[in-house]
Amino acid sequence: MLLLAARLFQYLMGSNLNSSRIRMTTPVLTSVVPGAGPLHSSAYFVRLYLPVKFQASPPVPLPELNLHPDRWPGHCIAVRSFSGYARDKNVVEEAEKLAMSLSRSPWANSTKYPSKNAYSIAQYSSPFRFIGRVNEVWFDVDCESTGVETY
């Protein structure tokens, strides 16, 4: 994942076809796709939100960065917030807590929403912030099964 983060950083610093520097936004979103990697390991997709001024026409990354834009359609997510650094162990624990919470709610069967991601981790704090960090674990949920509309 460090290699992907380095490529995203290069893109933000101007490694794009029009050499635009792009302000870093939050959250940094890491989506986990179980079993999609080599030897059935998990694969990860790291996403950054673009500032408003670039959303209509994002700068095209240099080809050697092998980055691809991703537009998410409107959809619903279930969220659980947690503090500290997002590390493998506590992220899995928080995802399990969110799954348990959903299993006891009206949303119990809504996580069968067709999603390529098992879950996503949203990190809002700079890596240099040591206390008061804000993170979330996200599950895609099926809005229609509960009568919620998306925009």
TrEMBL record:
InterPro entries, per database record: Reg_factor_effector_dom_sf (IPR011256), SOUL_heme-bd (IPR006917)
Protein name: SOUL heme-binding family protein
Family assignment from sequence similarity: Belongs to the HEBP family.
Secretion signal span: none
Lineage: Eukaryota, Viridiplantae, Streptophyta, Embryophyta, Tracheophyta
Residues in coiled coil: none
